[in-house]
Model the fold of this input.
Amino acid sequence: MYRCIIIDDEPIAIRVIRKHLSVFTDFEVIAECSNALEAMPILQKENIDLLFCDIQMPQITGVDFIRSLSYPPKVIFTTAYRDYAIDAFEMNVVDYLLKPISFERFTKAINHFLELQTTTTNPTDWDEKNSSTRDFIFLKADKKHYKINLAEIIYFESLGDYVIALTNNQKIVTKERISHLTNLLPSKKFIQIHRGYIVSIDKIESIGAGFVEIDGKKLPVGRNYKPDLQKLLSGH
Done:
């Protein structure tokens, strides 16, 4: 059962979302909030899987609220404004629904959420214990879910909304954002060296001035990622 919170300052909007959601038997609405601040203590106490969140609300916008959360649940924005779409998708939200929300469009958002549940793991699940025991991830490509052993991964390369996963014996192109993979992968095994690259630490062959050599290729190191690479070199 997926536990949900609906945040909207319009009661009618809450009723529409609740009605649409009632058709799906695997979802439970834990709370309905008229603003983001009401949801804060609930998120601190409850395990929430999915958040339906309006954007234009009093006190704090939905976008700013989600950015304030250290480990936000999956989010579907529900709004009457198109203006925030770019900001929303940069935050890797599940979907961005424009009001009035049709049931057909709502269903697509729910299906996308369910697909993500089969291909990803909540970042909070990757603690010290699980990161050392779980040795695979699932990536969706060609209408299938590929089980990829972490030990076989060489590096990930970002292509906008897609990521190329290069392994020892195959190349998989999946519709995923590299920012999400950064949270998904165990930090003891993988390191992001550039906004477009995540590499396997075990597969690194050499580190030079502004590049990492891996699989016979020189991949660039971004300025913002050099400190983490320095920590790796120093053994911290």
Q: What stands out?
A: The longest strand covers residues 27-33. Helices lie at 11-21, 36-45, 62-68, 85-90, 103-119, 128-133, 178-184, 226-234. Residues 120-133 have pLDDT under 50 and may be disordered.
